[in-house]
Description:
Blueprint: E1 23-24, E2 31-32, H1 47-56, E3 70-72, E4 76-77, H2 78-81, H3 88-96, E5 100-107, E6 110-117, E7 122-126, H4 141-149, E8 157-160, H5 172-187, H6 190-195, H7 198-203, H8 217-247
Parallel strand pairs: 3-5, 4-5, 7-8
Antiparallel strand pairs: 1-2, 5-6, 6-7
Helix pairs in contact: 1-8
Amino acid sequence: EVEGEALFAGRPGSDDEEVEPELQGPPHLRVGEAGYISSYHRQWFSDSNLANAHYVDERPDGESGAGSPLRYNYPRDVASACSIFRQRGGQRVLQLCDCVMLQQVCDGAHWHNVALIGPQRLAVHWEPFGTSIFSRTHPLARVRDAFDAAPKATGWQLVSVTLNLQSDGYQCGPWAHWFRRRLFAYCADDELMSKQSFAEYLSTSPGISPLGALRNRREREAAGAANTAFMHEERVRLRWLLRAAAREDALPYEHPLQDAFRRAGAAAAARADAVVLDEGLEGDENYFDLYDDS
């Protein structure tokens, strides 16, 4: 795997030196409006938490001649995610097939992942409960239909990786960032992409215990506990990185944009359109947003 370096790799000091972010919400859905996460191990990741985690963490370099250029879209809700395939960045991937785009999508407060792997003309959906986007009642059915309807080069296909790793009710955010790390490492390595499918690469990742094939209750509980512990380690690692960046006033996103992670009654004046926060690549100016005739 090709790995970069985290921008803020130093480990922050004691939490006593920091002000803990204030959390709100019911006990099963504790969320915060700060750009970094708290020490509470069940806090749900907001859109700004995920976007900041992407910013501070290691990033393989797919633009240096090895692998494919990598682009990250600011996290969206389901409704706004339906538009990405007709926007400038999505059209560039779907038509030119020269780069990779990641879109994290929130259904309510649960994170899904949609990746466009241009060189393979492959769209990938994955979420940690292992559901299939091809289910008629799937929460991202509208996103699936939007992909199908979008103009694109010939040969594109959509797959859903039905890899079940989550058994708790609060780690979908860390799993979404884990997916980001696996996708970017895979797509930055041309040789790896030519030898192994992304679905196989993801399903054989180190440290995970797939739950789908386990029928014995005790085995499934043990594997689920192992995955939760694995994500707790990832959560702690990300907390170090986010807090280090926050100390330097270097987090690009201070507050979440999505209503699911904002305090009830919070003012919406400071919200930005997610599309202006998306990463771009040289050559994007040759593509344009597409609009329905209606």
